């Protein structure tokens, strides 16, 4: 049964052995339990044998606990943590393509300044904008520019890092 | 001879104490099958890879050791799948070795190439594909360690042919596998004290014994707990035999095909101590109405089994044996209680109401088979009516004496599982009970039994139908019988004779004793076909979507 997309977005961070096939094992756990992965980001850590998977999923309140137990059972998983809370800093990178209609120029430039985003490239009627921010910032950014006409979006999904010096070495 | 990868495989098998494997060779397994010639590992050639997996499973269940099966790449590997899934669902420690095409051919759709790692991802505890012969020994050791520790299960190791045939130095002896322990080992004393306190204060406690008791070898401790606290127990299908079935505190099997007494008392109890069970849907029926008055404590080594389907008041993650060792001294010794008297009066009332076991003549017949066999007999049951008849009437006197596919419900399991059980415990007699439907599904294993002259007693209970499905169509689909008739044209005795196995046919309602005696007297394998009425169902039965106490006793209920 597919879980209804409701409630909060949960972000979890998973340290895994940097090996072929690990991502499909992690993905399999989500799929088998009917959870949809909303965003996913995978990269090496300070230790090249270890990768960090950061993913977000919209799910019910006991999701994190349930999925954490299931993921913990996988041999290639080193650690799973819930990074939705205050002790983590979350960021996402977003690229959007915006249509610029005649007369909207000044307004768009003001918004770009306001959001602190960057024009990556532009033609007279089309801008590619880049924004890095917390999930709520990128959401507001997207919503605002949709009123001008967003032709294309690509985003990295959230990554997260602990605010304080980590207790354990990877 | 120079050492090659295949020698490493055999070396680790020997280190792990493996002296028997079940398999089927193919082009890509040949390095292993070649080197097996010089080893002490006996290889039983099955007639189908699925049966090799079931035999390894039966071997593991009968002995408590890790079962090992081997198949070639491609179809050999995919044929193992049902057997691996069966072992996974019932937490059998198993190592499945699959050969693979050479690493240079991987991903090229080479002859007999298949992504067996991908196919078995959700039905293995873990899987490995070996890419470097220098990692082979460590990988295999890890596979064995994983298969038997924590909640046991099948682990698959995929072995490309070039790895098996590459030259390498002999592996270092017994290098310890570097592995994360993904189960809790420290003892949560406080929680055990809470469990003990709640049990001591409860008035109507019940123990639910699951398959985990066998997997952790905690039989003696569970029995001590029962006798000290005078606590009645029920079992799940996987838990049958953990404590001698004739123990006076035994209320029987719970669940959709369980005993009325067991289901009723669970419904009335005020405290459940669940040991090594995951509260499967077959055990609980309608979960919302399961044990409505009870506080539940659950001991299990697998954190994901705790509270998966039902709210647990007192969870405890850890090895059952360790938990019970610490728990026992905290439990008050009790005398006979009102609860036990109440159970006795319920028992008398049910016995007065129901004259047979609910299994009809088929049940009586199975009882006669058990009576004729030595006490030290292992029985394997297939899936369907024959399974329920067997688990409800066969008195499992010792923990590993009753073997059946519980979670997966795999038809065709009992015959190959009996092969594994017989080879694993040659000192015990082995009876394989099956229906006609399940018998067809691995009928080719008669050839294995005959070839190795394994003295297995095969009981085919033949009702010419898929009996359990027939019962469901009869009761819940307005007796619209469809696609369930297997017919009566096949002469199973002649089939057995064709395979070199003697046999005879009896009807369960007409002097079955002579046939049973002939079977018991036979030195080698023997097939007894027992014809039974297709309307010999099993009662009571819980209709789909109902609670455990809404039992039907016949189709007019």
The two chains with the largest interface, and their residue counts, are: A-B, 12 and 14 residues
Structural class of chain B: alpha/beta
Give the full name of the CATH homologous superfamily of the largest domain in chain A: ACT domain
Amino-to-carboxy terminus distance of chain B: 72 Å
**What is the chain-wise order of helices and strands of chain A?**
EHEEHEEHEEHEE
Discrete helix count of chain A: 4
Q: What low-confidence regions of chain B span 5 or more consecutive residues with pLDDT below 50?
A: none
Which of globular, elongated, flat, extended, rod-shaped describes the shape of chain B? Answer: globular
Gross CATH architecture of the largest domain in chain B: 3-Layer(aba) Sandwich
Helix proportion of residues of chain A, in percent? Answer: 25-40%
- The CATH homologous superfamily of the largest domain in chain B: Thiamin diphosphate (ThDP)-binding fold, Pyr/PP domains
- Radius of gyration from the alpha-carbon trace of chain A, in angstroms: 19 Å
- Quaternary structure of the protein: heterodimer
Largest β sheet strand count, sense and barrel closure of chain A: 5 strands, antiparallel
Q: What ranges of chain A have pLDDT less than 50 throughout 5 or more consecutive residues?
A: 1-6
CATH class of the largest domain in chain A: Alpha Beta
CATH topology group of the largest domain in chain B: Rossmann fold
Detailed description of the structure:
The complex is a heterodimer of chains A (170) and B (557). Chain A is an alpha+beta fold and 170 residues long. Chain A folds into two domains: 9-84, 2-Layer Sandwich (Alpha-Beta Plaits); 91-158, ACT-like. Chain A, domain 2 (Alpha-Beta Plaits). Helix content of chain A is 26%, strand content 40%. Chain A contains four helices and nine strands, in the order E-H-E-E-H-E-E-H-E-E-H-E-E. In chain A, strands 5, 6, 7, 8 and 9 form a five-stranded antiparallel sheet that branches. In chain A, a hairpin with a 2-residue loop joins strand 6 and strand 7 (126-133). The radius of gyration of chain A is 19 Å and the shape is elongated. Chain A starts with 8 loop residues before the first strand and ends in an 8-residue tail after the last strand. By secondary structure, chain B is an alpha/beta fold. Chain B has three domains: 5-165, Thiamin diphosphate (ThDP)-binding fold, Pyr/PP domains (Rossmann fold); 189-353, Rossmann fold (3-Layer(aba) Sandwich); 360-531, Thiamin diphosphate (ThDP)-binding fold, Pyr/PP domains (Rossmann fold, 3-Layer(aba) Sandwich), CATH 3.40.50.970. Chain B has 23 helices and 18 strands. In chain B, the strands form three sheets. Chain B has a six-stranded parallel sheet with strand order 2-1-3-4-6-5, with helices on both faces. In chain B, strands 9-8-7-10-11-12 form a six-stranded parallel sheet, sandwiched between helices. A six-stranded parallel sheet of chain B has the order 14-13-15-16-18-17, with helices on both faces. In chain B, helix 17 links the parallel strand 13 (377-381) and strand 14. In chain B, helix 1 packs across helix 2, helix 3 (49-63) packs across helix 18 and helix 16 crosses helix 17 (385-393). The model of chain B has no long low-confidence stretch (mean pLDDT 95). Classes of the chains: A alpha+beta (170), B alpha/beta (557).
């Amino acid at each position: 049964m597919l879980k209804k997309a409701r409630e909060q977005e949960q972000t979890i961070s998973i340290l895994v052995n940097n090996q072929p096939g690990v991502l499909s094992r992690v993905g399999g756990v989500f799929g088998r339990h009917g959870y949809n992965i909303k965003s996913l980001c995978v990269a090496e850590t300070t230790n090249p044998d270890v990768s960090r998977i950061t993913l977000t999923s919209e799910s019910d309140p006991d999701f994190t606990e349930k999925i954490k137990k299931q993921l913990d059972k996988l041999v290639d998983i080193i650690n799973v943590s819930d990074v939705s809370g205050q002790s983590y800093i979350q960021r996402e990178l977003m690229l959007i393509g915006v249509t610029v209609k005649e007369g909207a120029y000044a307004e768009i430039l003001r918004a770009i300044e306001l959001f602190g985003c960057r024009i990556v490239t532009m033609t007279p009627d089309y801008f590619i904008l880049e924004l890095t921010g917390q999930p709520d910032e990128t959401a507001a950014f997207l919503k605002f520019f949709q009123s001008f006409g967003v032709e294309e979006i690509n985003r990295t999904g959230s990554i997260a890092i602990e605010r304080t010096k980590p207790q354990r070495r990877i | 001879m120079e050492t090659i990868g295949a020698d490493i495989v055999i070396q680790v098998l020997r280190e792990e104490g493996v002296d028997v494997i079940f398999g089927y060779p193919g082009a890509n397994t040949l390095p292993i099958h070649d080197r097996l010639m010089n080893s002490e590992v006996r290889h039983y050639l099955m007639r189908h890879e699925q049966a090799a997996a079931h035999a390894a499973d039966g071997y593991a269940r009968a002995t408590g050791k890790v079962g090992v099966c081997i198949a070639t790449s491609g179809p050999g590997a995919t044929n193992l799948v049902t057997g691996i899934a069966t072992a996974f669902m019932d937490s059998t420690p198993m190592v499945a070795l699959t050969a693979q095409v050479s690493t240079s051919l991987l991903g090229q759709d080479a002859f007999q190439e298949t992504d067996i790692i991908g196919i078995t991802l959700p039905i293995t505890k873990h899987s490995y594909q070996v890419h470097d012969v220098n990692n082979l020994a460590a990988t295999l050791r890890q596979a064995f360690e994983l298969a038997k520790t924590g909640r046991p299960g099948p682990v698959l190791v995929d072995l490309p042919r070039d790895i098996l045939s590459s030259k390498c130095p002999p592996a270092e002896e017994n290098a310890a596998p570097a592995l994360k322990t993904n189960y809790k080992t420290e003892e949560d004393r406080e929680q055990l004290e809470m469990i003990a306190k709640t049990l001591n204060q409860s008035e109507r406690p019940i123990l639910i014994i699951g398959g985990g008791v066998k997997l952790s070898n905690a039989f003696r401790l569970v029995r001590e707990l029962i006798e000290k606290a005078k606590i009645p127990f029920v079992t799940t299908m996987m838990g049958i035999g953990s404590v001698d079935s004739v123990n006076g505190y035994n209320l029987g099997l719970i669940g959709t095909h369980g005993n009325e007494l067991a289901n009723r008392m669970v419904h009335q109890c005020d405290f459940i101590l669940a040991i090594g069970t995951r509260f499967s849907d077959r055990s609980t029926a309608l979960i919302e109405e399961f044990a409505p008055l009870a506080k539940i404590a659950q001991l299990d080594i697998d954190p994901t089994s705790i509270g998966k389907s039902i709210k647990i008041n007192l969870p405890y993650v850890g090895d059952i044996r360790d938990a019970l060792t610490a728990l026992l001294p905290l439990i008050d010794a009790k005398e006979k209680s009102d609860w036990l008297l109440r159970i006795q009066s319920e028992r008398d009332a049910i016995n007065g109401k129901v004259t047979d076991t609910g299994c009809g003549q088929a049940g009586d017949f199975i009882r006669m088979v058990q009576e004729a066999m030595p006490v030290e007999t292992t029985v394997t049951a297939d899936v369907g009516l024959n399974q329920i008849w067997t688990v409800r009437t066969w008195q499992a006197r010792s923990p590993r004496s009753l073997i059946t596919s519980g979670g997966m419900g795999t038809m065709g399991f009992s015959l190959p599982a009996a092969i594994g059980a017989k080879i694993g415990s040659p000192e015990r007699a082995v009876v394989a009970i099956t229906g006609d439907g399940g018998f067809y599904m691995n009928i080719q294993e008669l050839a294995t039994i005959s070839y190795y002259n394994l003295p297995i007693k095969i009981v085919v209970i033949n009702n010419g139908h898929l009996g359990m499905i027939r019962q469901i169509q009869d009761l819940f689909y307005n007796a619209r019988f469809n696609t369930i008739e297997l017919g009566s044209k096949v002469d199973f005795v002649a089939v057995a004779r064709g395979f070199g196995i003697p046999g005879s046919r009896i009807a369960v309602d007409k002097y079955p004793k002579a046939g049973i005696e002939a079977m018991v007297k036979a030195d080698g394998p023997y097939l007894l076909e027992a014809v039974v009425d297709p309307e010999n169902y099993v009662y009571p039965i819980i209709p789909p979507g109902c609670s455990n106490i809404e039992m039907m006793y016949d189709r007019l209920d």
